[in-house]
Amino acid sequence: MPIKIFTALLVQDMQNDFMSGGALPVAGAETIFEPIARMAETFSRVIVTQDFRPEHHVVFASAHPGKKPGDTFQTAFGEVVLKPDFCVEGSAGADMARGLRLPMSRVIAILKATNPDMDGYSAFLEADRKTATGLQAYCEDRFVNRLYLCGINREDALVHTALDARHYEHSVYWVTDAVAGFDPQGRDKAAFEAMQLHGVHFVTSEEVVGREIK
Predict the structure, then answer these.
(1) By C-alpha distance, which of 53, 125, 49 is closest to 93?
(2) pLDDT 10s digits, 76-85
(3) How far, in Å, CA of 202 to CA of 192, rounded?
């Protein structure tokens, strides 16, 4: 029996604190609103991820007396660069970006970085590489085996998601014109090549919108 293909659009970390004027703005974040909205209309499953950090999170400079943003701190899961408070649970900065249109009746949210002692990048696993966010369980429950990735790639978070998705044997499509914070010809060339090596496909939002839907 052929394997049924179930797809989902994964929109990573499109939150107010990563927009212009937010605590950690990512260049070009607002420019991807439109391609994401167009694609979302064509999916019956839309997954959004949100950083949802408790107050006094280990990566906040405010949690370490005498430290400031840009300083480093050694955690149990590696060295981190300390940040201003961002995407604090319950804050406006943690909310989905104002102006981003999504079909909310078809959206499920996955929260990450919820442990105050641990950072989070991938939509699948936290920094200890053991703690699951619930995304893989959702994919297994809904038989999702093809993911289209878009959103914010702060500190290679979306790259981590892409590689973890391949680890779980999903087909992965990176939507090139719907990702902010990624420079495949410059600083992210090695990450781009790693994703190619692991079988990640690269497509445009127009190709996604125009795909054959079964």
Answers:
(1) 53
(2) 888 999 999 9
(3) 10
The answer to whether the beta carbons of residues 54 and 88 sit under 8 Å apart is yes
Distance CA 154, CA 152 (A): 6
DSSP conformation class of 121: -
Residue-wise pLDDT for 39-54, tens only, equals 999 999 999 999 999 9
SS3 label, residue 207: helix
CA-closest candidate to residue 152, choices 175, 173, 180: 180
Long-range contacts, 138-141 (Cβ 8 Å, 24+): 138/47, 138/108, 138/110, 139/8, 139/168, 139/170
Residue pair 112/50 in contact by the 8 Å Cβ criterion: yes
The pLDDT of residue 192 is above 50: yes
**Is 16 in contact with 24 (CB distance < 8 Å)?**
no
Closest by CA to 51, choosing from 119, 129, 101, is: 119
Q: Which domains does the chain have, with CATH numbers?
A: 7-54+87-209 (3.40.50.850)
Comparing CA positions, the residue from 156, 151, 163, 195 lying closest to residue 39 is: 151
N residues, the chain: 214
Beta-carbon contacts of 40 under 8 Å, excluding residues fewer than 6 positions away, are 9, 11, 46, 101, 102, 103, 106
Question: Which residues lie across from 35 on neighbouring strands?
Answer: none
Q: What is the model's pTM?
A: 0.95
Radius of gyration, CA atoms only, the chain: 17
